[in-house]
Amino acid sequence: MGLMSRMTTIFKSRMNKILDRLEDPRVTLDYSYEKQLELLQKVRRSLADVLAAKKRLELQKARVEQEMSKLEEQAKEALRLNREDLALAALERKQSYAVQVGALDSQIQQLDQEYKKLEATQQRLQQKVDAFRSQKELIKAQYSAAEAQVKIGEATSGLSEELADVGLALERAQEKTENLRARAAAIDEMIDAGALPDYTAGTDKLQQELTKEKMKSAAALDLERLKKEVSG
Fold first, then answer.
1. What is the CA radius of gyration of the chain?
2. What is the pLDDT of residues 135-150, one digit of tens each?
């Protein structure tokens, strides 16, 4: 081995030792695992937020339906008192609430779909995190064993300065760590936490008038039905 080759070998060996001290792959693996756990926690929080929003809409829908039942009873009472005008007014209000119920049903359905999507994402991510944890512990154990073997070899042979590949075990662990980081980054790109559709879409004046006329027509039909019930 020439002088230059020997100096290059010694330089590489010393640089590998410096890199060993600067970056322990076991620490890197633990850090990557913590980042994946944080991502999993974000997905869980998003699930909780969507579920809470859905529950609020369901409660709102229940209150509106109670008001509809109350208005129908009031319409019946008005007919018994021969106040058809009051009955019609109550039924028109009931139809307005019916429109709200339809809108709430649509929003609840959309939130339910979003919840199922996030739930499936959480399950996939949990599986990946579990697999990463197992692989992480295996790599850490292998690295510790390799590190111990190197130290024993150095202590018994006294050839540490000429072992150019003393950092080979570290390089393999670093390569695996980078692969795992790439997988974690791919998972980050797949998850879109907390994005909900916008449910507030307005209608123009013409559409509002058409909707109003439809409600009046429906209320008139409802009035005829109640007349038959009351008279019968």
1. 35
2. 888 888 888 888 788 7
